[in-house]
Write a structure and sequence with these properties.
The complex is a heterodimer of chains A (762) and B (145). Chain A has 762 residues and is α+β, with helices and mostly antiparallel strands. Chain A folds into three domains: 194 residues, Aldehyde Oxidoreductase, domain 4; 169 residues, Aldehyde Oxidoreductase, domain 3 (Alpha-Beta Complex), CATH 3.90.1170; 324 residues, Aldehyde Oxidoreductase, domain 4 (2-Layer Sandwich). Chain A is built from 19 helices and 28 strands. Chain A is globular and about 85 Å long. In chain B, 59% of the residues are buried. Chain B folds into two domains: 73 residues, Beta-grasp domain (Ubiquitin-like (UB roll), Roll), CATH 3.10.20; 66 residues, DNA polymerase, domain 1. The chains are: A alpha+beta (762), B alpha+beta (145). At the A-B interface, helix 1 and helix 17 of A face helix 2, helix 3, helix 4 and helix 5 of B. The complex binds FE2/S2 (inorganic) cluster (2 copies).
Chain lengths: 762, 145
């Protein structure tokens, strides 16, 4: 039955109170442990077509008569278009249309960042379009950019309201502390760098606009386009069958989609608008830089008494201020916590979510300072973490739906124990050490999400839902869930996704939500189909429904007297089908749904050159039931490798004077390569969250990237005594930290850093 | 008009001077298995074999490979390396994968059982943002299984 509830909805750490129509989730969870299909390693159902190059990505789509677009983007960090003339562009060969400021809201005259879209041209070829854009006559009035986040805040140039979150009394907590540590941490701008750049191909078919787009959010794009064009949602068809990575940056329709739509309207032709890599590195989003000024107070026995944080998100010209304070609020039990988070509006390209936005950065700061505290207390960092374990959600005292972080810590012990051997392998110039960091994040998903399933007389089933698989393997997981519930082999299930006109509403793929949101809906749809099959079998064999079940392709009775192949029952349908439908039920009320984990890193530091190598990372995460252990391992490895890039090499640089972006190519922006990969050991607790849906599964896309930077930084401290305060840990930062450590000696209090400021309220 | 043999078929390519091999393959011959992720030689997504040598097709002019034998992922659809990548889960989004497989095939053509060091050396020019690297290494180690 449909039910209307008032509930909190969370995506990427942003909460909204909404009305929601949900359906009851009546299915019992399967018992813990691997089953026939679910919990077994499965290769990707679409692996072969992707590996063979047969999968058609948005980038590969070629519609008859399709035009190509080039976009004129602002070359300055802050400027105004003084004069623009598109006529010379329109006169160029192959050109079919050109649009400029005020033609659509996405083309702007006032440019707050380098890369702001100003004008666009559609032509027969991309080269023609590009030449035409170069022919546009334009005069700029350059404006002074604001680039320093602290200055932006002083000027009250903010993105969103400052966010203050407080419990207890921070000052009282500091007063009762035996020891107080402080630190300022900074993280850099990094780029999502999906290999398929942001792009759309659009065409009008009658009064319907078809949008083929590289997206994590089919239904979000549909809603945005429908609202902007003021046409019904069903007149917008959004399609994404295969997607070349997004990592959080592809949740919106964005300028390129609206440029293509407008040019398609004007030219009556299908239009592609695709970002080049150089545009991608500037104008497609980024993980924004942060400044974190942190204070921790603790008793001599390690009990935390106070946590204070002043956080600055340098969000750029737009976007939103990420929950960088989240780990401080939610990781540890501590009665007195106060955080303030500002979003600084500076003349840099707007942020977009990037794999656990805010929590990656916030965990680096908090977990680094926790280890500084452990050092001062002469306490084992693992013990310190256990000591301050939060049994209930410390931010609002609600119980967790499921939390196995203690078990993660227990399983981390053998990896942590290795530190004695690792350190012993140090030489005069190469120091080795081990560090750890904890992880907390969302990942519970939520309603609404729907799936359909059809089962044919041949015993094969097709799951139909308009979700997307952005490369995480969610399509494979859905096939496993349906096969398990229907009692049929995995290769008897096909999954059809990626088309808003060919399937029901589905969750976006962000916030680690695809499996926890879609999985229960798919299981419910399969259960609905199974119920109907059993109804038919009961009538056919004159048995009661309750004694019948389907296992490994057979309809069986509880007493074992009946075993008939499923196809014999379904054969009665001839070419008709059984249709099942399912919905995602509500999240448990009054409970906090989170994911947890811990990582242990082993590093080597060359103290003469400042070079850092990561030798090994052990990752133990708790994300409820694991559907596909093979795909899960890939997610963990991928997250850690991105985390290593974030920690050691990736840095989108800009000229501090002009704001000009300096790392616009993949030569200058250093992504990790296969040669940078350490040994990675991954473990999952694989305990279903008993309160969460009919599966007990949470998302795993984001958790693995969260603790990596802090674990590496802590391993560096363990190896050398040096305290790194900035990402990336470049050789300069490493040598600075080594020098500072040498000055203060390996024992004794860390020196106050210059420019250090106390957090708000201290 | 350059003539190129692609996957065993001879083609006369019409593209203007300045057309890259990637453009000729993707736009003119509709062989879109070869991906372009940067267009300037920095990522390896566009790797194809030119006379057996792994080559970045986005920075190779089609007129420069006149008379050459080009192998793209479409020409390797039943190569054991393709199955090995699927078996090892050596792909996530799959956008880098055709280029990875081409580089991997070139490597094992020159040495059937390369060492980890050799794999890392040969594959370092193929970026994978999803971070499928450990599984790519495994796929190359186990391709003959
Ligand atoms: S597309 Fe050719 S190297 Fe990147
Ligand atoms: S699998 Fe996505 S870039 Fe390699």
């Amino acid at each position: 039955m449909a039910r209307l509830i008032r509930t909190e909805k969370e995506v990427e750490g942003r909460f909204e109170e909404v009305w929601l129509v949900v359906e009851e989730d009546a299915l019992q969870q399967w018992p813990a442990g691997a089953r026939e299909v679910v919990g077994q390693p499965a290769t990707r159902v679409d692996g072969l077509e992707r590996a063979r190059g047969e999968a058609v990505y948005t980038a590969d789509l070629k519609l008859p008569g399709m035009l190509h677009t080039a976009v004129l983007r602002c070359p300055y960090a802050h400027a105004r278009v003084a004069r623009i003339d598109l006529t010379p562009a329109l006169a160029r060969p192959g050109v079919h249309g050109a649009i400029g400021p005020r033609d659509i809201p996405q083309l702007e005259e006032e440019c707050g960042y380098q890369g702001t879209a100003v004008a666009a041209v559609a032509a027969d070829t991309f080269e023609q379009a590009r030449a035409a854009v170069a022919a546009i006559e334009i005069e700029w009035e350059q404006l002074e950019p604001v680039l320093d986040p602290d200055e932006a805040i002083a000027r009250k140039q903010l993105v969103g309201e400052p966010r203050e979150r407080s419990r207890g009394d921070l000052e009282a907590g500091l007063a009762e502390a035996d020891i107080v540590v402080e630190g300022e941490y900074r993280t850099q701008v990094v780029l999502q760098s999906s290999l398929e750049t942001h792009q759309s191909v659009v065409q009008w078919v009658g009064d319907t606009i078809e949008v083929y787009t590289s997206t994590q959010n089919i239904w979000g794009v549909r809603e945005e386009v429908s609202a902007a064009l003021e046409i019904p949602g069903d007149k917008v068809r959004v399609v994404c069958h295969y997607m070349g990575g997004g990592f959080g940056s592809k949740n919106d329709a964005d300028d390129f989609t609206f440029i293509a739509i407008e040019l398609a309207k004007r030219t009556a032709r299908p239009v592609r608008c695709a970002l080049t890599r150089r545009e991608e590195n500037i104008a497609s989003g980024n993980r924004n830089a942060t400044i974190q000024r942190l204070t921790i107070g603790a008793k001599a026995d390690g009990t935390l008494t106070a946590l204070g944080g002043e956080y600055v998100n340098a969000t750029g010209w737009g976007g939103w201020s990420t929950p960088v304070e989240g780990p401080m609020q939610q990781l540890y039990s501590c009665p007195n916590v106060k955080t303030t988070t500002w979003g600084a509006k500076i003349n840099q390209p707007p942020m977009k979510p990037f794999r656990a936005p805010g929590f990656v950065e916030g965990t680096f700061g908090l977990e680094s300072l926790i280890d500084v505290l452990a050092g001062k207390l002469d306490m084992d960092p693992l013990e310190l973490r256990r000591k301050n374990y939060a049994g209930n959600d410390p931010s609002d005292d609600r119980p967790y739906s499921g939390k196995n972080l203690m078990e993660c810590y227990r399983r981390a012990e053998p990896h942590w124990e290795r530190r004695h051997d690792v350190r012993a392998r140090s030489t005069d110039t190469v120091k080795r050490g081990v560090g750890m960091a904890s992880q907390v994040w969302y990942g519970g998903g939520g309603p609404p999400s729907y799936a359909w399933i059809r089962v044919g007389s041949d015993g094969h089933a097709t799951v139909v839902t308009a979700m997307q698989d952005i490369g995480t393997g969610s399509k494979t997981a859905m096939a496993q869930i349906a096969a398990e519930e229907l009692g049929i082999p995995l290769d008897h299930v096909t999954v059809t996704i990626g088309d808003s006109a060919r399937g029901p509403y589905a969750s976006l793929s962000a916030g680690s939500s695809t499996i926890p949101s879609m999985g229960p809906a798919v299981r419910a749809a399969a259960a609905d189909a199974k119920r109907q099959i059993i109804e038919i079998a009961a009538q056919r064999f004159d048995l009661e429904e309750r004694v019948l079940d389907i296992t490994v392709g057979n309809v069986v009775s509880a007493d074992g007297n009946l075993t008939v192949p499923l196809t014999e029952v379904l054969g009665l349908l001839e070419s008709a089908q059984i249709l099942g439908k399912g919905a995602r039920g509500p999240n448990p009320t009054g409970m906090t749904v989170l994911t947890f984990g811990v990582q242990v890193a082993e590093v080597a530091v060359d103290v003469e050159t400042g070079e850092v190598w990561v030798d090994r990372i052990a990752a133990i995460h708790d994300v409820g039931r694991v559907i596909n252990p093979l795909g899960a391992e890939s997610q963990i490895e991928g997250g850690i490798i991105q985390g290593i890039g974030h920690t050691l090499s990736e840095h989108r640089l800009h000229d501090p004077r002009t704001g000009q972006i300096l790392t616009t190519g993949l030569d200058a922006y250093k992504l990790p390569t296969i040669a940078d990969v350490p040994e990675i050991v991954s473990e999952l607790i694989d305990q279903p969250d008993e309160h969460l849906t009919n599966l007990g599964s949470k998302g795993l896309g984001e958790p693995p990237i969260i603790p990596t930077a802090a674990a590496i930084a802590n391993a560096i401290r363990d190896a050398t005594g040096a305290e790194v305060h900035e990402l990336p840990i470049s050789r300069e930062e490493m040598l600075r930290a080594l020098k500072e450590a040498k000055e203060r000696g390996r024992i004794g209090a860390p020196k106050e850093r210059e420019g250090h400021r106390a957090p708000a309220g201290v | 008009m350059p003539e190129v043999n692609v996957n065993g078929h001879a083609y006369a390519v019409h593209g203007a001077v300045g057309t890259t091999l990637a453009e000729a393959l993707r736009d003119e011959l509709s062989l879109t298995g070869t991906k372009v992720a940067c267009g300037e030689g920095h990522c390896g997504a566009c790797t194809v074999l030119v006379d057996g040598i792994p080559t970045l097709s986005c920075i190779t002019l089609v007129h420069a490979v006149d008379g050459a034998k080009v192998t793209t992922i479409e020409g390797l659809r039943d190569h054991p390396m393709v199955y090995s990548f699927v078996r090892a889960d050596a792909l996530q989004c799959g956008f880098c994968t055709p280029g990875q497989i081409i580089s991997a095939v070139a490597l094992v053509d020159s040495k059937a059982a390369p060492s980890t060091e050799e794999i890392r050396h040969a594959m370092a020019g193929n970026l994978c943002r999803c971070g499928a690297y450990p599984k790519i290494e495994e796929a190359i180690r186990t391709w003959q299984d």
